[in-house]
Specification:
Order of helices and strands: EHEHHEHHEHHEHHEHEHH
Shape: globular
Radius of gyration: 17 Å
Strand content: 5-15%
Structural class: alpha/beta
Distance between the termini: 29 Å
Number of strands: 7
Length: 248
């Protein structure tokens, strides 16, 4: 197979399925051959990212991701994409394993925010406890000169319930709870734009999009970027040249 990219997924599986579905449905097609070529690594055995970030005595998820990346690198994909925000905790170590370009989901999403909402000085952030704990998105947002609003102590328990109790454990999206989180961030904490810093939250947006709030959805953004890049590469552009504008 020529001109393909590798998706390092399985964190979690339903969220990865959502990402792949977005790629398939957002590309313009008239025939089977218009779809993109990709290899999906759905490594459902990757240890929980938040558990390790908060407690290094827990299994280190980098070990599994290292194996996935090294295996895929032998096949020489055009680029890597990893649709798990929290897993970007070990992004710098993963990119050292290969010279194949590796998209950074968080940086691309943050730059999309400042492009789409140049007048907004603050962005609301909802994410896993691991991402919040290690300032994964917060650091990226502050680097572009914007403020982060995490909300009050009632926000994280609701977000954790939505991500873990609903989606990861039961495979369902509680749309009412998702909307309540967005409403609280907007009305009580003045967030005109809210960043969905977890792919389970992106799944919630896909399943329950009927709300009036502005969201930055990294999963949608990454699907569109993957489509753009692979179409350019398919047309003859060098992969590293195509991806250069997204390597912040």
């Amino acid at each position: 197979m020529k001109h393909f990219f590798s998706i390092i997924g399985g964190m979690g599986t339903i969220a990865t399925e959502s990402f792949v579905r977005m790629i398939n449905h957002r590309i313009k097609i008239t025939k089977d051959q218009d779809y993109l070529n990709y290899i999906l690594v759905n490594d459902a055995q990757v240890p929980d990212r938040t558990a390790y970030i908060k407690d290094h005595s827990k299994p280190n998820f980098f070990t599994a991701l290292r194996e996935d990346v090294l295996q895929q690198a032998q096949l020489k994909p055009d680029f890597f994409v990893m649709p798990c925000n929290t897993a970007h905790y070990c992004y710098d170590d993963l990119v050292k394993l290969t010279d194949i370009p590796f998209l950074h989901m968080m940086r691309i999403a943050v730059h999309k925010f400042i492009t789409d909402y140049p007048e907004e000085k603050k962005i609301g952030l909802i994410a896993t406890e691991g991402s919040i704990y290690d300032h994964l998105y917060e650091d990226e947002i502050k680097q572009v000169g914007r403020e982060v609003e995490l909300g009050g102590p009632e926000i994280q328990p609701m977000v954790t319930e939505l991500i873990y109790s609903n989606i990861k454990e039961k495979g369902v999206v509680n749309g009412e709870l998702y909307h309540r989180i967005l409403r609280t961030m907007h009305e009580q904490y003045g967030c005109n734009v809210i960043l969905l810093g977890c792919t389970e939250l992106s799944l919630a947006q896909e399943k329950a999009p009927d709300h009036p709030y502005n969201v930055i959805d990294p999963q949608v953004i990454m699907a569109d970027v993957a489509i753009e890049l692979e179409l350019k590469i398919r047309a003859g552009m060098d992969p590293k040249a195509a991806i250069k504008k997204y390597m912040y």
